[in-house]
Amino acid sequence: MSKIILMADGAVLQEMTLSKERITIGRRPSNDIVIDNLAISGQHAAIITIQDDSFLEDLGSTNGTQVNGQPVKKHFLQNGDVIEMAKYRIKYQTEPQHDNSAANYSDATDTINTLTQVIQDTQNTQVYNPSEVYDDNIRPASLKILSGTSSGKEMHITKAITTIGRPGIQVAVITRNAQGYAITHIEGDRRPTVNGQTIGTTAHVLEDGDVFNLAGTEMQFSLK
């Protein structure tokens, strides 16, 4: 299980295991991690954890949030990442996980992990919410990798949310509900392209046969 370590001036102030789906960090007493400093906003940032994956979101803070020295609004956390808020440092640590999923391909450019809950988005990006009108009768779908060393491999989409991409480079989610399937950009300076067109900040509805490029890898979406 992952944990975070709050530090200031080299001293450890607090450790917390990420056992909740969502924790908040800020100056207000209602936060899970309270930092009583005027440089920290009332509700500064949040960490959302779903299974073994954690996302950091800046909640519109006044002085901003950085990860490993780079300003971020949303970031897919990786082991060893250091979150910076004013003079405070929060180190993210996770234990190695053994994953036998058929979706966990050896090619790092084709990383695919399945999530089963909704990411609670607090920024401008709007995730196509699979819990609103979930329908088991929707046509099944799959992703087929078209480039790279894993070309030809196929993964069936069976969960409400599936994350794809390379953490730290480019990450997106594919969501599934009664209205169909959609892809939403989560992390990275460049957004994915679908059929050669860059998607916007909101969820992009996928159609049978769509080809999208993510982190340099081409994949095709197919309805069964």
List the SSEs and their pairings.
Blueprint: E1 3-8, E2 11-17, E3 22-26, E4 33-34, E5 45-50, E6 53-58, E7 65-67, E8 70-72, E9 74-76, E10 82-85, E11 88-93, E12 112-115, E13 141-145, E14 154-157, E15 161-166, E16 170-177, E17 180-187, E18 193-194, E19 197-198, E20 204-205, E21 211-214, E22 217-223
Parallel strand pairs: 3-4
Antiparallel strand pairs: 1-2, 1-11, 3-5, 5-6, 6-9, 7-8, 7-10, 10-11, 12-15, 13-14, 13-22, 15-16, 16-17, 17-20, 18-19, 18-21, 21-22
Characterize the structure shown.
This protein is an all-beta fold and 224 residues long. The protein has two domains: 2-94, Tumour Suppressor Smad4, CATH 2.60.200; 141-223, Sandwich (Tumour Suppressor Smad4). The chain is built from no helices and 22 strands. The protein has strands spanning 3-8, 11-17, 22-26, 33-34, 45-50, 53-58, 65-67, 70-72, 74-76, 82-85, 88-93, 112-115, 141-145, 154-157, 161-166, 170-177, 180-187, 193-194, 197-198, 204-205, 211-214, 217-223. The protein has a six-stranded antiparallel β-sheet with strand order 2-1-11-10-7-8, with no helix packed on it. Strands 14-13-22-21-18-19 form a six-stranded antiparallel β-sheet, with no helix packed on it. The radius of gyration is 18 Å and the shape is elongated. The two termini are 36 Å apart.
